[in-house]
Design a protein that fits this description.
The protein is of the alpha+beta class. The protein is about 20% helix and about 45% strand. The protein has one helix spanning about 1-25; strands spanning about 35, 40-45, 50-60, 65-70, 75-80, 90-100, 105-115, 120-130.
């Protein structure tokens, strides 16, 4: 009885160990963002002069990444983005434009919807001078 129990336990532990080692060697399944940065500070900018910043990312997954939608926090912010699929290991972008119409500090966000199952939020900030 002890011998068969020991054998069953050994087989169980072997199978569990093998499954953990297999899981640890696989890359992330599906597409995955890896951003160079998710926030940018313009510092001081001039009123009524648009400014731009390009956020870059690498597809750190094992399937093609597609950005499906971009949402900005206000009409003063717009974005262009990689419209073609971004292959694993390749780089993509989200280029944000901010048109400062009011003097003072600002903080705006851009939500990026994609086939990754996550919605990263990029942010820009700064202050507007006269």
């Amino acid at each position: 009885m002890k011998r068969s129990s020991l054998l069953i336990l050994s087989v169980f532990l072997f199978i569990m160990g093998a499954s953990f080692s297999v899981q640890g060697t696989h890359p992330t399944l599906g597409p995955a963002f890896k951003w160079a940065a998710i926030e940018f500070d313009f510092g001081e900018i001039q009123k009524d002069e648009p400014v731009y910043h390009t956020f870059t990312f690498t597809n750190h997954g094992d399937d093609v990444l597609y950005i499906t939608k971009i949402k900005t926090s206000c009409g003063c912010t717009a974005a262009e983005y990689s419209t073609d699929g971004v292959a694993p290991g390749e780089e993509g972008f989200v280029k944000v434009r901010y048109n400062a119409s009011k003097v003072g500090t600002f903080r705006k966000t851009v939500s990026v919807e994609a086939n990754t199952g996550e919605i990263p939020v990029l942010s820009i900030k700064g202050s507007v001078a006269i």
